Backbone:
């Protein structure tokens, strides 16, 4: 099975280790993985800010780059949701691309959802010693229906104690450009989220979306709390010896 | 009511610092969410009901004219009268006219958000009528001279202490038999004051949760019984309702009713569910001599044919407000008009104009919880995005934000340049952060760093690193 990894702009810029972890997990599960070099941004910032013209241009570019593969795997519920649920709308009136958008949408998956639902992975064989809590990103939970899959894989980590985060349906306040357009409201939301994380007693928090993770890690760092923040791919690939997000090296 | 939606960002900041408001919001939030969840746990057929309700609404909207005509016919058959209002001014004019014709001096009123939408109280007061709100929450905010902050709990932002203070300030001359320390004390006090108003009113004005085409009835749900007293004690009963409230039959109404109270307050049914059909008949012991229904359009027939049609499915339960993290943080007044929360952020720009209301559509993380809890499955995030698309087309976005987005897209469309920039910038930020792993101050990123550190990049682009390790055909020119 030949799959393409769409790393997402945040992983590309902030955290290449998530990209390498995703590749490792996919290869370990028997996939031939390619990382198309022409990948940039899925266009979600444009689409969510009402810039339909640029969203269309970027969506067409993504389709050109990614349509030759069996599956397109994304280590982010939000960007996967853009490809799967929004591209067909973005390009609905584009006679050259609308059908191609539908086809790409059907082949696009969030990483943990793909590992569990399509590849049937039940354990990645990695070790994680500690108390961990899971943050459901809104796009994973509601748009991609991914919530059971990462929990299943995390629970299979050797030594891992997975603690449920209360109010897991509540947004962390990232929301793409929302967090800088309405910084005070976003701050309130992420602060509440961090308070909830603290109540679990977990020493590590993970999620499948780097946007949420940057937001949560940034607030944790500002509050100087001893909680580590990782992307789920890093935990599943056993890559927790690298500094966590926002952690000193 | 004058709209202040443009100042949402400033009003939100004030709200976040208002400790009394924050305490009230925190209390309400937990209550609504937990009660709804408990009620739905007892309703395994929730999803089927949702589908059925949607079908009823969609069917009705597809035949809206037919059902409204049928409703009018049935109201007339039962001895009542229907009045059609295209806009708020017309609706108010009709209502004021009906009060004048009835030689009215005192009007009791309750349970109409459409009344707020059309500015009915101001119009009635301008016509020298004495208006008393009879719903406890509405009565409280009337005394406080504030607009509602929630569509089903208009005074949810007020604490018990604030309410007691208001009553003490306004009920001069009333006999205080005891201090207002508990909720029952407050309710008793309001009941005592309102009782005289009910008995003395010439006209009663209520809203309607539904209009039943088949029978010409208007349905109203309340928990205080004030709707019944407002409707049946005065000589004239005026119902103010928007046109999308019509459903074909009583049976259809029951489907919506099963969803409404559970989604709103977590009750399986409200304490009172009343159906009003026509004026007092000869064999009736009581009831109004006249029964009028004012049907308000105010942009709704236009919505039937545009991208916002599904907003006409809304049954005003308030679940989207109760589950919205933005509403939960800032409360309803920040939204600056009648309807707050996600449903309000969709409706308000349609009613007051996009140039006045577009900021509301921006004030959402598009987290989607509103759509997930909506009993009518209204795609609220999609409708908010629809406003954003229109705002962009209309050039309403701030020029700086617009050009930054355009700049980003221009780079993202040039993969080689993009990769080169990512590689350089991420290494630069990594170096600046040094061993610390985060940045506390970043030029131009104050909106982020005001409360959050910026985690430092690991340094270097993933795609570039992959290319170095694996070569790979560079098809990115």
Residues:
């Amino acid at each position: 099975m030949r799959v393409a990894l769409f790393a997402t702009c945040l992983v590309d810029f902030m955290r290449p280790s998530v990209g390498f972890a995703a590749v490792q997990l996919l290869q370990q599960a028997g996939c031939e993985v390619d990382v198309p070099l022409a990948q940039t941004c899925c266009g979600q910032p444009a689409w969510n800010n009402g810039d339909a013209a640029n969203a269309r241009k970027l969506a067409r570019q993504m389709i050109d780059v990614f349509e030759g593969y069996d599956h397109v795997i994304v280590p982010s519920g939000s960007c996967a949701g853009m490809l799967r649920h929004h591209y067909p709308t973005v390009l609905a009136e584009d006679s050259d691309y609308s059908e191609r958008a539908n086809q790409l949408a059907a082949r696009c998956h969030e990483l943990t959802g793909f590992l569990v639902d399509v590849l049937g992975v039940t354990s990645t064989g990695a070790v994680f010693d500690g108390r961990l809590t899971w943050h459901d990103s809104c796009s994973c939970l509601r748009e991609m229906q991914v919530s059971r899959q990462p929990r299943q894989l995390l629970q299979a980590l050797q030594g891992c104690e997975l603690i449920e985060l209360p109010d897991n349906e509540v947004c962390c306040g990232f929301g793409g450009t929302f967090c800088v357009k309405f910084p005070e409201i976003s701050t309130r939301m992420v602060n509440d989220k961090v308070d909830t994380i603290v109540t679990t007693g977990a020493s590590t928090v993970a999620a499948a979306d780097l946007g949420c993770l940057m937001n949560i890690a940034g607030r944790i760092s500002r509050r100087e709390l001893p909680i580590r923040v990782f992307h789920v791919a890093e935990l599943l690939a056993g890559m927790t010896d690298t500094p966590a997000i926002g952690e000193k090296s | 009511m004058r709209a202040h939606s443009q100042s949402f960002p400033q009003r939100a900041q004030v709200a976040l610092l208002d400790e009394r408001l924050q305490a009230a919001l925190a209390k309400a939030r937990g209550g609504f969410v937990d009660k709804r969840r408990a009620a739905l746990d007892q309703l395994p057929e929730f999803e089927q009901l949702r589908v059925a309700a949607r079908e009823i609404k969609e069917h009705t909207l597809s035949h809206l004219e037919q059902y409204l005509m049928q409703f009018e016919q049935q109201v007339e058959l039962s001895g009542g009268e229907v009045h059609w209002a295209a806009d708020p001014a017309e609706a108010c004019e009709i209502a004021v006219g009906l009060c004048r014709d009835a030689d009215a001096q005192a009007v009791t009123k309750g349970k109409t958000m459409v009344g707020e939408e059309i500015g009915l109280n101001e119009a009635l007061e301008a016509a020298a009528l004495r208006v008393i709100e009879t719903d406890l929450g509405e009565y409280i905010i009337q005394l406080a001279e504030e607009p509602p902050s929630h569509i089903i709990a208009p005074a949810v932002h007020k604490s018990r202490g604030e309410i007691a203070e208001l009553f003490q300030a306004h009920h001069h001359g009333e006999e205080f038999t005891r201090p207002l320390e508990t909720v029952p004390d407050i309710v008793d006090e309001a009941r005592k004051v309102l009782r005289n108003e009910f008995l003395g009113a010439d006209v009663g004005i209520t809203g309607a949760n539904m209009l039943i085409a088949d029978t010409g009835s208007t349905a109203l749900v309340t928990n205080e019984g004030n709707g019944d007293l407002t409707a049946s004690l005065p000589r004239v009963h005026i119902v103010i309702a928007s046109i999308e409230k019509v459903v074909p039959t009583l049976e259809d109404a029951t489907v919506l009713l099963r969803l409404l109270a559970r989604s709103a307050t977590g009750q399986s049914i409200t304490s009172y569910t009343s159906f009003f059909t026509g004026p007092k008949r000869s064999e009736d012991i009581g009831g109004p001599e006249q029964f009028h229904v004012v049907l308000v359009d105010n942009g709704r027939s236009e919505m039937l044919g545009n991208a916002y049609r599904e907003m006409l499915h809304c049954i005003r339960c308030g679940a989207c407000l109760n589950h919205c993290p933005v509403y939960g943080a800032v409360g309803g007044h920040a939204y600056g008009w009648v309807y707050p929360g996600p449903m309000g952020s969709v409706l308000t720009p349609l009613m007051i104009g996009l140039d006045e209301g577009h900021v509301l559509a921006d004030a959402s993380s598009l987290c989607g919880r509103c759509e997930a809890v909506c009993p009518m499955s209204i795609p609220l995030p999609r409708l908010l995005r629809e406003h954003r698309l229109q705002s962009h087309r209309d050039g309403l976005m701030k020029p700086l934000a617009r050009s930054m987005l355009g700049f980003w897209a221009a780079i993202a469309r040039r993969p080689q340049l993009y990769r080169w920039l990512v590689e350089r910038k991420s290494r630069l930020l990594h170096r600046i952060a040094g061993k610390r792993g985060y940045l506390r101050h970043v030029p131009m990123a104050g909106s982020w760093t005001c409360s959050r550190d910026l985690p430092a990049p690991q340094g270097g682009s993933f795609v570039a690193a992959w290319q170095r390790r694996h070569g790979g055909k560079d098809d990115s020119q």
